[in-house]
Amino acid sequence: GQQLNQSPQSMFIQEGEDVSMNCTSSSIFNTWLWYKQDPGEGPVLLIALYKAGELTSNGRLTAQFGITRKDSFLNISASIPSDVGIYFCAGPGNQFYFGTGTSLTVIP
Amino acid sequence: ETGVTQTPRHLVMGMTNKKSLKCEQHLGHNAMYWYKQSAKKPLELMFVYSLEERVENNSVPSRFSPECPNSSHLFLHLHTLQPEDSALYLCASSHPGSPGAGNTIYFGEGSWLTVV
Questions:
Q1: How many Å lie between the alpha carbon of B28 and the closest alpha carbon of chain A?
Q2: Alpha-carbon distance A51 to A71, whole Å?
Q3: Do A95 and B105 touch (CB under 8 A)?
Q4: B46: which of A60, A85, B88, B97 lies 20 to 30 Å off by Cα?
């Protein structure tokens, strides 16, 4: 089946720094989704990408759909403490496939 | 508020108990899912219902029994669970059929289950 590899697995950054994480797939996706999960809560959709090359922003978050359709990137600018959580990428195929997550810690 | 509501949010049960998790979605979707999320593990798909019919059962033990009475409601009936079943159980919904371009999955807040 399709696998989504997400990196880095974890990040520890200072408040105010920018963050970048990515997700790669062994197969082509037609949609890329990015979620954030707070401790003890369900994942919440941050950004959805539907077209290769698409660049979409949601506040301080920016995500890009890779031109090869096998990867996607999520950037967070000027991080703040509430950005703490686990970020997941996902893509729909025969089912929804999820990355293993990037755990983000923001140090005030 | 994601449009997918799960109850209870927390549940502690003994290994001989019978309990149920409930999920309700208000998004007009026709596909609903149960996922299990254990500590430091990826999301594990348990069950998929599309148009109220079960289309996927990823070899889940029979002590977990799903029920989908209509397109807005999904239950997970639990009986004789084991301590290793303790996890966060997530309900989700999407449009029906094979997920394709433009399809998006929305999650509930999760039900924390502890088996003692």
A1: 17
A2: 12
A3: no
A4: A85
